[in-house]
Amino acid sequence: LPLMKSSNSLSFSLQAKMSRPVQARRLEGTDKNIWVEFVKLAATYSKVNLGQGFPDFPPPDFLKEAFVRALSGENHMLHQYTRAFGHPPLVKILAQFFGKLLGRDLDPMTNVMVTVGAYQALFCCFQAFIDEGDEVIIIEPFFDCYEPMTKMAGGTPVFVPLRPKAPKDGKLMSSEDWQLDPAELASKFNERTKVIVLNSPNNPLGKVFSRGELELLADLCVKHDVLCISDEVYEWLVYDGKEHIRIASLPGMWDRTVTIGSAGKTFSATGWKVGWTVGPNRLLQHLRNMHQNSVYHCATIAQEAVAQGFQRELELYGKADSYFVQLPKELQQKRDWLVQSLDSVGMKPIVPEGTYFLVADISKFKSDVPDVPDSDEPYDSRFAKWMVKNKGLAAIPLSAFYSGPHKSNYNHFIRFCFAKEEATLKAANDILQKWKQEKTSP
Ligand code: PMP
Questions:
Q1: Which residues form a coiled coil (predicted)?
Q2: CA contacts within 13 A on the Cβ side of 279
Q3: pTM to 2 decimals?
Q4: N or C, fewer C-beta in 10 Å, the chain?
Q5: 341 lines ligand 1 (CB under 6 A)
């Protein structure tokens, strides 16, 4: 018993010591996370999950086989740490591959750095470049983590929207119909602007920025001496013969751009968490600093396998057998299938030019999910929650990709992921068709 007493008083004194705030100020206002919330809802209720962005089909055999070879081959050093800034075979092949795409000689050791997915690449960039008081231009709708990452680094996000224009009569809207207003964009640049974040192809809309749009951005970056974080994780997922243009290849942009990629998206293996940055040493040296003081090493075996995947793709570049040719071909079919399915039930799709996401208009379904006046939660968020709970179909509300004050302007759309097996897309179609029937039958 005396022992009990002393342990009680010990826990009391420990508690008393923790009475001051434990949370660092930089975390204020960044605790809500759409993925944590909606991944849990999907796990609990969904029969068909078209929410979070990951394929439900396997990565290509050549990649899986490379992983198995790395895992059980003779070179047992692949189970140990490798070079901190990237496993040498991976940075070498990435330098070769992206050197070819960008039309310049890249040094594997200074122009490439491997990260734990594109997420860590983004985090390193925000931490390495943004100071207290710096402004960061973010194009809305945006991959949601850009905003908290800016704030955590002490920066101020400045949002500029893609503005939708009505499609031509009878045509479905396309992600191409969402455009920047050049004057509005230019008005966001000033002497405090440090960085602009570009995401093309864009998650969630699937917009592929045209050369003209990228030139406009590039001119402003050069004029105002602004850096560009270019998130290009969906670089291979471009449809209808569209071209993905790398902003780093435009005049004046190499020296001020970090290009970010992801093996998760490139090889349909999101769980491997292998990402990379490509850029000039004057920028990458600071990313290496961030990386060496936080993560330091990334998983060796996954890097070895991704290196072999790129080796194969370099040999097959542009050929019919290349995964980078085959995957978009397959995904374009899936996109067309989902477009048709949504259109047939009146959930008007915005046809994406790229990525594996599709945004659809839920206006016609509003009568099923009553509006709650004066609610803090955007309508599309309540709709998506209702849909997964009542119909078993998971999607993500578009307002999640907007900053606070702008959420209410875009609250009647939801985002679907179509990187799914045919059976999954068919099951989603069954749910939608049944729902439509219930709506029309008396
Ligand atoms: N950027 C964008 C635009 C994304 O959609 C994602 C993943 N959803 C990431 C970065 C993160 O990629 P990774 O899984 O490689 O960390």
A1: none
A2: 29
A3: 0.95
A4: C
A5: no
